[in-house]
Amino acid sequence: MAKKPIIQFNHVMKQFDDDAPVLDHVSFEIEKGKFYTLLGPSGCGKTTILRLIAGFTEATSGDILFEGKKINHVPANKRPINTVFQDYALFPHLNVYENVAFGLRIKKVKKADMDAKVKEALSFVNLKGYENREIAGMSGGQKQRVAIARAIVNEPAIILLDEPLSALDLKLRYQMQYELRELQRRLGITFIFVTHDQEEALAMSDEIFVLNKGKIQQSGTPNDIYDEPINRFVADFIGESNIIRATMIKDFLVEFAGKQFECVDQGMDPNEAVEIVIRPEDMEITSVEQGSILVTVQAQLFRGVHYEITCMDDAQNTWLVQSTKKVNIGEKIGLRFTPEDIHVMRLNESEEDFDRRLDAYGEDENNAK
Amino acid sequence: MEKKSSSLANLFLLFIFFILYAPIFYLIFYSFNSGGTMSHFEGFTFDWYRELLHDTRLLIIVLNTVVIALLSALIATITGVLGAIGIRSYKRRQTRNTLLSLNNILIVSPDVIMGASFLILFTMAGVRLGFYSVLLSHVAFSIPIVVLMVLPKLMEMSSSLEDAARDLGASHWNVLTKVTLPYIAPGIFAGFFMALTYSLDDFAVTFFVTGNGFSTLSVEIYSLARRGVSLNINALSTLMFVITVIFVVVYYYLASRSGTKGANLRR
Ligand SMILES: Nc1ncnc2c1ncn2[C@@H]1O[C@H](COP(=O)(O)OP(=O)(O)OP(=O)(O)O)[C@@H](O)[C@H]1O
Ligand SMILES: [Mg+2]
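Above: query sequence and adenosine-5'-triphosphate SMILES. Below: predicted holo structure tokens.
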């Protein structure tokens, strides 16, 4: 915590013309050497944040700091930050070597040094021996690696990646996810990665910022965000989830689907209207007698690893369950979950309030253990 | 049925081309006539070409024409490229389209009107008619052509290329010389060659703005032809035709090399 953040946004606002602001008082800190992901639906302002960090555009208001110094008006070519563009933006009139060497040539690096550096960068991305290839003759995955090599060869403090994997097929994408993560660990450079694919974000990041409509909804480690989504949007966007209206009777007791359940959340008002989240994989199918709630099976899809089963309870709530067991449509089954599987969300709670509530009760939770 | 009509169409096409090219080949043919008239062919000779080579006045005019063409094409290309970059830099679509329309109007407006208006302008501004007036007017009518050839290439270039160059530390000047210009180079060459050919064979505009003692080939041929027939003109026209054909071939070679994809589609 004492470490100075490498990038800091202080109430950054960005507005084009007279439209509604694209970024609305966004504040966050980025620590050195970590893998960050900006996650959000299309048009939520992810690219805009990257462009602000890279220096291609200026904030309407608010401050952007690099290692504590304000860089709002520092031009892009003076920032120790390099970008891997969504469309790669490789120079079509230059070959692979010249593309990678572009930044070094601008800095007038000596020929021998340049050769060594380009070679090293290309071997980092497994493209040894591709120096003299033309860009037009490379596959999507290879182009992407050239784009990464072109960024890392300059040894920047931060690398920004704008959905670099979205154009690749599934298999190559998985492979590149591993390679990127591995590369980041080896280089120790701060990565800020943009995606709208939640699985990708969960798999790769040290820390995730979930964005929606120009606001940061929640930030935290993949586990935090998956297990304790702050609101309906985050719960829905990150993975499959059952979101059910509920009432918080008192601390550790919540009522939904016509029954009261023990839970681990606290700090709400008595009888406050809330929403609860239960992940489909956290529920277990049991007999009617053993189930926490009773449901009727409505539909079943085979997803390869598991069955995805849609059920409905007596209060007309729909439940999504993942199970390796097959059930029959129309059958009555029980769903079992533990108090830890229930996550309670307050309506319209801001991230600060959420953190404050967790901090306030974290103490006695620890004492209890 | 279909075959028949298409062969008919081919025949028609051939006929049209024959009519279009017949006068030129007729003229070329008699440029080798030793008889001195264009009515009947007596024998093969290079005399007219030899005479042409000894006519210093004519050679100077040829030189003038070439110098004007090269210089005006060069100046027009530089100005046109800058203009195209300028047009692209306007973010608003409407401004851009207005500028482009203003540019295109200059291309479609009749040469005679252009020539007359240049004449009026030069007279009012007190510019002496001669080399500079011709050069200026050629530059002026070539710029819109260059803009028209360069702008599509510029528009096709993704703005992220320039962002990427900036990102890698390039100054604005470096972005221009290392990324933008190389990318649009085919368009620049095409524009240059178009400007060159337009300048070489322009008659109408030049006719208005040449003064005494300065002339270009097309104007000179016109005045020679009015004075009476000499096969000199045929020889000269033949040379010009050959040079034009060479330019066209070079132009198509460059164009097809840069836009292989487009050419394939058309095929
Ligand atoms: N130059 C611009 N002028 C006007 N509006 C813009 C401009 N650039 C972006 N926007 C708007 O800003 C909003 C956010 O854009 P941004 O590109 O940051 O989205 P994104 O999160 O990267 O989306 P995607 O996942 O589709 O790439 C969009 O509504 C977009 O229309
Ligand atoms: Mg984007």
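Chain A is about 30% helix and 30% strand.
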